[in-house]
Amino acid sequence: MTAVILPIIGLIALWRSAGRFSRPGAVAATVAVIAAGMAAIPLLPGGSERYVAVGVAVGLIALGVAQILRAVRRPPRTAPALLGTALLLGAPLPVLWPLLAPASIGLVVAAVFLIGLLRARFAPRSGTGSLTRPLSGTPQTVLSAAALAATAVLLVASGLIFQGGTHVQPGAFYQPPADVPAEAGQLLRVEAATEGIDDGMQGWRILYTTIGGTGEPAVASATVIAALDRTEPAPVLAIGHGTTGIIPACAPSLTAVPLDGAAGAARELIGQGWVAVVTDYVGLGTDGPHPYLVGRPEAANMLDAVRAARAIDGLVLSDETVAMGHSQGGHAALWAGIIAEQYAPDVQLLGVAAFAPATDLRAIYDRIGESAAGRIVTAYQVLTSSRLDPDFDIDAIVRSGNQRAVDRLGELCFGGRDAVAALATASQISELLTPDALDRGLGDVLDKGSVVDHIPVPVLVAQGTEDTLVVPAAQREWIRERCAAGQPIDYREFEGLDHATLVADDSPLTEQIVHWVGDRLAGLPTADYCAGGPG
User: Fold this and answer.
1) 8-32, pLDDT tens digit by residue?
2) Which phi and psi angles does 259 have, rounded to 5°?
3) Which residues pair with 268 in a beta bridge?
4) Half-sphere exposure (CA, 13 Å, Cβ side) for 151?
5) Which residue of 164, 269, 368, 370 has the fewest C-beta atoms within 10 A of its own C-beta?
């Protein structure tokens, strides 16, 4: 509490003495009070920054009210009124940007000193050199008006940043019918999809049965894309998309870009006769909870979408399937390789291609858990876990004071303006989790979601060397562990590419994916990095 109260007391004292610099002892004392409070801020427990921010906001309101009352009581009136309005308008800023609250104290102190210096420099003086009246007129009015304008711009810009975008809410199509079959992989509903479907292609949106985060019967949606001119029966690309969020409005099938992650390679393969089946996963589009980075249900959602797509009228699919995906989708594709043989033996899985996949979740958390993007991923994971497991105590995982920020992150999709709002929100958290979060359940969640089981089909893993989300060092360590466990992997690194550019249309990976997938259909051997083969 000292860290909040002392700067406020000091600010008020300094403000009242502004311009009377003939009393250097008093000025020095007030500066010392402010410094003591600010010095105490870093010593507060993690998560306390929001309380400091509220204290700063209260101080700004107090100063603003004082200035406006001063303008009401006596002249000069314009400058104090403008400055008071600016202080009141700026009060929400430290709450929006709590990690910048100490900096906002410094800005106010600097402003007070500047105004005081101007008063000392330009205000009339008596014969003894003391001020006879406060500075009035143009300089102080201009400064106060500039402060008001700058504060208004900052407040509007901050509001736009944190507001996020508007969501297209799932309509009636995504609501399951009353009589849902218990068997997974059953087509419930189908309609034509046109948005995001290239010329020369045909698209469908489907609703189908699958399993949820704890293995219970559930319903998911997906997008199916095929070339108009295709040879049937057509082989299938089962595609898992990367992180888009954890609420229904974040489904790719609701957007203009249903093909997510290595979309350029997918379009080329569709042109060669493949049919892409892109699951939204449970909880995106349909009711949740979404099993974010929960391996088995994500993989089942991918495989069941393929089975359901076989029932689309006018579309003939073969059993031959390659699973592929980027980031979260790569995680889901690898898990599809783990469970396909037992879970969906009717899906003939020819191989798995994963691009910057989340593999060792604990290693990834250790490296990026406290970065802005890492906090978003972690927030998704703890929210998912709390919704799937009643024994998961989210209050013991998330630091006190950060619950609202975590809930807000869960309301945002990871794309467009929502991504900006999510990154801004995450950037204003100093320490998201409690020190023993891994021991209180999060560690088990990360370990259970990691890819550690054998995959009996060919595996391609691609990784960019500049990736700051799925860190190359963590990926290489996972590759070494899987090699030691006897898992053949075609592992390829791409110099200078990051998490997004790895799967961009102009990435060198695009052409390699097309060839690798084609080789799986042709039954050709694949390189094994673990055995020293090219890759």
Assistant:
1) 545 554 555 444 444 555 555 555 5
2) -85, 115
3) none
4) 25
5) 370
